[in-house]
């Protein structure tokens, strides 16, 4: 099981060449998201993460009618053509998962655990990151390509009004996914010896 999990982490990549075909059903996609949201850890089991799942035409609406106009309104004229091309590539996908945090839940746990009140917002970010990675990896295992985008806060209010998202929810990221039309390039890694410190490890004793 451990080796399968590590292989899944290694396989997960940012895939930008995607299409509007999905190798799995909408029901399976929702099942995956429900499972990751249910089982991912959070500080004091606070369960602060929320998601909005947009599939098919609703996904297209997000990128065509909300993200593109919002970005165009603030993008330099000379860079809009490139930005529009990127946004069109996201629009051509199959779905988007928008990850949120619920500040009401954070505030509740700040009251319940006052000793760590100042840390709860930070820990909620940790939970959000774990939920994002879990969903991303699970979709990868089903043959879908995905990449993580951040067009908040430009799109927050319009998204909330369009899909009846509670206005107090804080948008953190957008995981856009679809069928894979291409493969990622080689990934470069910094030396692990500079990123991981280990003390106290013992060599496995040999048996006679």
Mind explaining what this structure looks like?
The protein is α+β, with helices and mostly antiparallel strands and 208 residues long. It has a single domain (9-181), classed as NADH Oxidase (3-Layer(aba) Sandwich). It has 7 helices and 5 strands; from the N terminus they run αβαβααβααβαβ. Strands 1, 2, 3, 4 and 5 form a 5-stranded antiparallel β-sheet that branches. Helix 2 runs antiparallel to helix 6 (120-141) and helix 3 (57-74) runs antiparallel to helix 4 (80-91).
What topology emerges from the helices and strands here?
Elements: H1 2-11, E1 18-19, H2 26-39, E2 49-55, H3 57-74, H4 80-91, E3 95-101, H5 103-112, H6 120-141, E4 144-149, H7 156-162, E5 170-180
Antiparallel strand pairs: 1-5, 2-3, 3-5, 4-5
């Amino acid at each position: 099981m451990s080796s399968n999990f590590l292989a899944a982490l290694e396989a997960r990549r940012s895939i930008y060449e995607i299409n509007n075909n999905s190798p799995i059903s909408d029901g399976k996609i929702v099942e995956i998201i429900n499972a990751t949201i249910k089982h991912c850890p959070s500080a004091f089991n606070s369960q602060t993460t929320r998601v909005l799942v947009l599939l098919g035409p609703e996904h297209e609406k997000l990128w065509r009618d909300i993200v593109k106009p919002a970005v165009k309104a603030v993008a330099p004229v000379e860079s809009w053509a490139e930005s529009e091309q990127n946004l069109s590539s996201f629009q051509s996908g199959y779905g988007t998962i928008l990850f949120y945090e619920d500040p009401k839940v954070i505030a509740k746990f700040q009251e319940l655990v006052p000793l760590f009140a100042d840390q709860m917002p930070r820990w909620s970010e940790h939970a959000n990151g774990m939920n994002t990675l879990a969903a991303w990896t699970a979709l990868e295992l089903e043959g879908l390509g995905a990449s993580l985008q951040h067009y908040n806060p430009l799109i927050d209010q319009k998204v909330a009004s369009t899909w009846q998202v509670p206005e107090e929810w804080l948008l953190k990221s957008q995981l856009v996914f679809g069928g894979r039309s291409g493969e990622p390039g080689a990934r470069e890694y910094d030396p692990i010896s500079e990123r991981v410190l280990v003390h106290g490890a013992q060599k496995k004793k040999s048996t006679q």
